[in-house]
Structures are given as C-alpha cells and as structure tokens.
Amino acid sequence: MDSGLNHIESMYLSYSGLLEEFSEDIIRSRYAFLYKECMEFLKSQNLESEVRLDEVLLMHAVLDYFSDVSRLKKFHHIHHINETKVIAYETFWLLRRKPLQVVTQRQDDFLAFINEKFVFSRLAAFLVGNRKDQVLREQDKKAFMNYLDTLYYFLKYRQYDPKMLELMLLGFRAGEIWGRQ
Asked: E-strand spans in the chain?
C-alpha cells in the first residue's frame, strides 16, 4: 500500500491544488479506505493470486474523484457533498481507472469484469445499507434482484457518467420511499 501512497507526490503536479484544498491526510485516508475495500473484496472472492490491485491506478481514481468533488463544491457553492454523490463519483472513477488487474491466464466473465463486480458490490451494499437482515416479500425480493441484475448489466455494457449513477441511486431511494406509502 505504501508504494501507491508514495506516488502522491509525483501525481500532485497533475492534480494541482488538491492537497491544499483537501489535505494529504484526507486524500490518503480515502485511498486507504478504497485500498482496504479492494483487498477485502479480492479476499472474499478468493482472488488474491489471480487479481492484483494496481496502486497507481487506484491513486489516480482517488485524485480524479477529489478533482470532481472540488469542481462540484465550487460550482454549487457547497462545503460537503452527500453520500449518494460520493458513491456515484467513486464508482465512476474506479470503473474508469480499473485498478483491479487480472494477472492469471484463466479466462472467464467474472474476471473480465472484475472492476465492475467490485463497484457493483459496493453499490449493492450502499443500497441495502443497514437493512441487510431485513426479510423481503417474495415479489419485492424478485423486483430488487431484477434491479441489481440490471444495474450490473448497465455497469458492464452501457455508457455511464457520475451524474447518471447518482440518478440511478436516487431513483432507487425514491422507489423505496414510494413503496413505504
């Protein structure tokens, strides 16, 4: 993990001003958080020997995320962005930079879309939130699983940007509210 963090100084020139705006500690903290999530995902899938985390690509994703957040905050005159924007912009840059790199000769769809599977797992966890143990009615479970299948398909094969991802997440939340009525 340290080698990726050490590259922050060299990448700084490409991402001028981010350290002053967000502080090195905040950027390092986001990097460490995403690094840990990536490694836990690889471990949970038993892929540590088949997929490696490219620390430089992960750092680029983190710095690109902070560049976007900086622009958002300046444009909207806000100090903080909401959690939906955070996950949408992180997802976009993780998919764009693809820090999970396959290092095995084994060929299969799961490995071909390893970055999409990783961000999909993060999005699904975000959508479920603290309701992991909630039991759904069969029709609701089917609808939710269809939504997740469509979301994963979208991440794999469709064009996306952070705003579209944010809208998808907000739409899901709106559907939750509507469903409780």
From this structure: 51-53, 100-102
Neighbours of 136 (CB within 10 A): 12
C-beta of residue 38 within 8 angstroms of C-beta of residue 99: yes
- Asked whether the CA dihedral 111, 115, 118, 124 is positive or negative, the reply is negative
* pLDDT tens per residue across span 54-78: 999 999 999 999 999 999 888 888 8
Task: State which amino acid sits at residue 27.
Answer: I
- Our CA angle for 157, 168, 135, nearest 5°, is 105
Q: At what angle do helices 114-128 and 162-180 cross, to 10 degrees?
A: 30
Q: Which residues pair with 102 in a beta bridge?
A: 51
Predicted TM-score (pTM) of the model is 0.85
CA–CA dist 133, 3 (Å, integer): 38
Q: Which of helix, strand or coil describes residue 108? A: coil
Cβ(64)–Cβ(45) under 8 Å?
Answer: no
